[in-house]
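task queued by scheduler; priority normal; single chain, no ligands, no partner chains; default sampling; output format set to structure tokens
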Amino acid sequence: MGVNLSDIISPKPIELQSLNGKRIAIDAMNSLYQFLSIIRQPTGELLHDRKGRVTSHLSGLLYRNASLLESGIQPIYVFDGKPPALKNKVVRKRREVRELAGKKWIKAREEGRVSEARKYAMQSSRFTREMLSESKELLTCLGIPWVQAPAEGEAQAASMVISGDAWAVGSQDYDSVLLGAPRIIRNLNFSGRRKVPRKNIYTTVNLEILYLEDTLTELGINLEQLIEISILIGTDYNPKGVEGIGPKRAYSLIKKYGTVSNASKMCDMVLDFNLDNIKELFLNHDTTEDYILEWNPPSTKEVREFLCYERDFSIDRVNNTLKKFSLAYKEIKSQASLDNWFS
């Protein structure tokens, strides 16, 4: 989930139309887990084909990308590589949480507690190697580029925005800010009317943007200080942070003392983590430039074979969606030609 900076950082609302023509480097695993969480049956079961294989992630990739492309957005999916060793603890913890939620889901479903069953089911989402391979294969068939990061996908996405290969990172996590991404788009997969968890009411989830430079200016700090604030709160590399310190307290300490080292001396803090090692992971990322970014019309025959004949998707719905892809790609190529003409 990354660090929670919502108490001190305020994203700005943005209209989908303003992203027309923009390349968005999307945190692939972040999006795929979202699809697994929300694309479910009423009592929490994932969508499956007749062989019992999960298809919720494929449904999300197909229909959501059709909407993004129709809006003129050029998505790039960035997949995680091997996580840093410091992240192993949080990875194990997340696995334990999913396993416990899975047990609670089964019990709630058996007892007919539908709303609770769905809640626990969403928390139990587990992504397999097979699902990862399927996602990449479908993206290739749809003509959407994807990049394999050597380590953290968000770090790779941030570096692509910094280099100009993408305009913004698409992710729910605030970690992209700490990784130096100049622009972050939030709620790319969530915008619209959504049910509030555990309540029978609905709310509107708006598309949001975070500008790194504006955020730092508003807070009156630099990027290293924002990273140190996050370390005090707790990151994926030191989940507990410092006991009793939340976002607002961490911010006030760094504003007053400048650094975690100074604050720890003045306030007699106990730091049970290596501050420099964690900062290094945010400031210097293992990334690659070995990728090609091209958007091509979908291979309709391969998509139909993959989704309809092998995984029981409705051929009419898939055909209609593929038409949207084809029209969207024509617009992208047309816009690229205009850009080249006037450049």
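post-processing summary
- The chain has a mean pLDDT of 87.
- DSSP finds 14 helices and nine strands in the chain.
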